Amino acid sequence: MKNRKITFIRFAISFTIGFFSLNSLFAQLNGFVLDPSGTTDNFMRYEPKGFSVNGTSYVTGYLTLSAYKNLTTGIMANISEPYQKLQLHGGNILLCRTNPSSASPDINPTSRNGAILFSDYVISANNWIHGKWGIEYDDQYSTGGLNFFKPVSSLTSNRLNFNLFIRNDGNVGIGTGDPAARLHIADGDVFIEDINSGIIMKSPDGNCWRGTLNNQGQLEFSLMPDCVATSIPENRSKDEPSFRLIPNPASGFLRISCTTADLASYSNFSLFDSAGNQVKSGRLDQETCTINTGDLAQGTYIINITGSGKTWSEKVIIK
Question: What pLDDT shows up at residue 103?
Answer without folding.
Answer: 45
